[in-house]
Amino acid sequence: MQPIASLLGKNGMEVKRREGEPTNVFLYRFSKKVQQSGILREAKKRKFRTRPESKLKKKLSALHREKKKKEMAKARKMGRV
């Protein structure tokens, strides 16, 4: 598992407080930058390890998607959707 800092690249993310800037404005700007960069989302995603999906599960999922797709096409043709 990579540390979050390595995801940001060489430079990382830096938010400096401007001269005379109120603390609440600075915190708002900082939190907005963090959300836009996706750091928090990535950290939450990496909190728990997920196992890779088995071949059987992938196959069953694909079959289910195809079945649903056909059902929707049939419903459209019948004028239900």
TrEMBL record:
UniProt keyword Transmembrane helix, yes or no: no
Domain of life: Bacteria
TM regions (residue ranges): none
InterPro entries xrefs: Ribosomal_bS21, Ribosomal_bS21_sf
Cellular component terms per the entry's GO annotation: ribonucleoprotein complex; ribosome
BP GO annotations: translation
One matching Pfam family: Ribosomal_S21
Keyword Membrane: no
Alphabetic keyword roster: Ribonucleoprotein, Ribosomal protein
Molecular function per GO: structural constituent of ribosome
Annotated family: Belongs to the bacterial ribosomal protein bS21 family.
Protein name per the record: Small ribosomal subunit protein bS21
Native source species: Candidatus Wolfebacteria bacterium RBG_13_41_7
